[in-house]
Amino acid sequence: MQKVNNSKTPEEATHIVALVRQLVSAINGNATEEVLPSSQAKQVRLALKILSSRISSRKQSYVDEQVIVERLKRSLAKANRIRDAVRLLELVNSLKQLCDNHQLTQVLYFLEELAYHEQELSHSKQQRLANQLSDLSVDPTLSNSSNPLKVSNPLLDSAIVDSNQVKNLESRGNEDTSHDDSKPNNTVREDAFQEYIVKENEAYEISEAILVREAIYAVQGIEGKYVKYQEQNDEYAVAPDIGVPQPVRELIRRICRMGWLYKHLKQQLQELQSNPSCGAISRSFCGAIENELDEYYEILAEVEAQAGMTNFENIENAGLLAAKGRDDLTLRKLFVWCQEPLEKLKWLSVLTEAAYNTKGGALLSILHEFTLHGDKSIQSLVCSILRKASVPLFDAVRKWILDGELDDPYEEFFIASRQGITAEDIWDKKFYIRQSMVPSFLSMESHLISSILLAGKTVVFLRKCCSDGSWLSDKFREPLFREKPLGYNQVDSLRVFVQAACEASSNRLKFLLFEKFLLKGHCMALRNLILLGQGDFVQNLLDSLAADLNEPSSDLYRNNLLGTLDASLRSSSAAITIASALSAEDSMMDNFTNEVLDRMDVRLLHPSSGAQGWDVFSLDYRFDVPLTSIFTKDVMEMYRKISRFLWYLKRSNYLLCTTWNTHFLSSSQDYKHTKLEMKPIARTLYNKIHFVRMKMMHFVENFQYYVMFEVLEVSWNELLNKLQKAQDMNELILAQRLFISKILEKLMLKEKFRSQYQRIRQLLDLTVRYHSFMRTWAMHKSIEDLDFSTEMEKRDENLLSKLVQIETQYDTIFEEFLQDLQTIEKDEIRALLFRLNFNGYYSSKMPTASQIARESHQHLSS
């Protein structure tokens, strides 16, 4: 329809009125008359109402055939004209065949406006005012008036010219108003409410049911026809060209925040799952989030059922069923319902965002932090997700403990393994704890984590190093291990499970080490052979090797030394002593003897210029898997270090004993074969030789006693007790390390005892010098060449001078050594100091501890 411009001149308005009158007369078949019949006058009034109403002046920003049909249908449904509403759909389909879409839209729009204004004019005072204005327009006496009338109808402003008539109309309107005010308050209130409802409903271009349906689609991340995703604002909202009141737009926008969160959450999950580093725990976390979304879908299905959307065949039926009362879900109810799911989606999005670029135990630690939230509902939500996300972790724990297997391609588990590790180092270096992947709810249980590592390592060690996997397979089939529930917030159950599995596997390993691999026997072999605790073996070896070791180191051959070692072992009771201590049978004793012989070895150190065989010779003991995990390379290196030191000590004792034999035989021959008295210088030399030897023997024998009884024997008893009480492999290794470490400390072979160790080596070196001196003296001393010439006296004086020099150096170093021992606060060292100075002979020559402290303080002050 052509819309009438509101700014008409009086002449144009008068002309329009005349045209309307002519049109009505022509339609009714009457000639033009100045005064029309009442029926035709009513038709003129209606036509003027239409032309002067909002039909021609209201601007529509959006006109859609479907929207208009919906509004018409809704209006008929409110009037309880359901059949007419269905008939309307049939008529609209018929009109579609007669005209194009644009014409159809205009026709439907005109019909809608007619229905709207007919209802509006029947419920307001404007209807009465317009009726009287129309009566004035039909009166021929007003057609020639030129005075403007100031009323609210723009079309009749130029047709009504008498201001007095306007006053009369206004007074009549006031009378009508006063008449209406005389109605009861309840009636007025109901009329006002009905008028509000009508105006509110007419402010929608689409029904609320459609908006509810669109909002429900939007909260699922689906765009509708009227509610769409706006990229510029990053939100779902009603299209701007849809006629919907602003409060409703805001309400729908708030409801649709759930749709934005849902869409954002789905994108986050897709990114997590498409990440190449997404492992089992990350996938389980995504599955837990999707499970929560499944509950969200169930709630949405219930809402859709409540809204009647499941019965909607098309958009027309949606509005029709909503108008019939099949839908009691409004936007306000939907908004109230959205609050709880909206809060849940917020936290799901927060959890997913926090899980980005994390995996494994680190992901579980982040989730665990959210369980500290004060809101119980949030705690429950996070615990539910964490319980599902941690399932792969506890499955990996069970598989590691029972089968010793690590299936962790994405490095999510807190137990990790290194590649390229040999069987010798499988216990110590193969497996380790990846601290970054330890979940925070287990990090406080450090002993539990260590036990998990130990249990799996023990299983792997039994299978690969001890070849004993069948027993474990049978043992771990028990329900205690296979059916024990493990999961989040079940730390006590996990602790019981780990303790039982660790105890079973460790007991089996300990049994095999002691019974099958004879761990205790090998420890005794180290003590008696490498640490020189077997006296007859040591004496036989010294007697057999003395001649060879006195030669330069370059003349030694390892094969010859091995043969001598084998002969010394077989001629001694070392292997038999060890086997009898183990209470072994004869067959096992023979096997163990052969095994000890096979494991004993000789190691020659890199010789230096002028070194003798004593300086490069060292005993060694070889181990195979699985004992190499206990007697590791560093442990065996400490054994060799102690062995070389004790060998050097035994050498000094052996040399002093040999010197005593030489001195004794020489002295006996002198007194036996000569009747002449010895010169004073020779007698002095004889006495000095004996006195110096006794000094050295005093130190060597007391220190050797200290080594054998105060150090080795005590440490050995402690080792046996710890081996017996050991619960697992780690305790066996620790017992062995403590044993050898204590020996190193008590023998003053550690770095912190460098000064004391240097003094001991200097004293032992002086014994070797003394032996060399005695060999020189013995070469020049023989009964056949004995004389008392002046040349002999000079030679004795030179020898005496050298001996006095050795004695002076020895006394000086020995006194310094005793002073150093006073600074060590250990009972064993105190006992050694007492044995070396039991009669207080050196007390007068040594400063007291207070004097040493005072001198040290003065030295530091200067």
From TrEMBL:
UniProt cross-references to InterPro entries, sorted A to Z: GCP, GCP_C, GCP_C_sf, GCP_N
The keyword Cytoplasm is assigned to this record: yes
- Gene Ontology MF term list: gamma-tubulin binding; microtubule minus-end binding
**Signal peptide positions (record):** none
Q: Which family does it belong to?
A: Belongs to the TUBGCP family.
Q: Does the keyword Nucleotide-binding apply?
A: no
* Subcellular localization, as worded in the UniProt entry: Cytoplasm, Cytoskeleton
Provide this UniProt record's keywords sorted from A to Z: Cytoplasm, Cytoskeleton, Microtubule
GO cellular component terms? gamma-tubulin complex; microtubule; spindle pole
Identify the residues that the record assigns to the Gamma tubulin complex component C-terminal domain, covering every copy.
Answer: 519-842
Which Pfam families does this chain map to? GCP_C_terminal, GCP_N_terminal
Ranges for region Disordered = 169-188
GO biological process, any = spindle assembly
Give the protein name, as stated in the record: Spindle pole body component
Q: Where is the Gamma tubulin complex component protein N-terminal domain?
A: 212-516
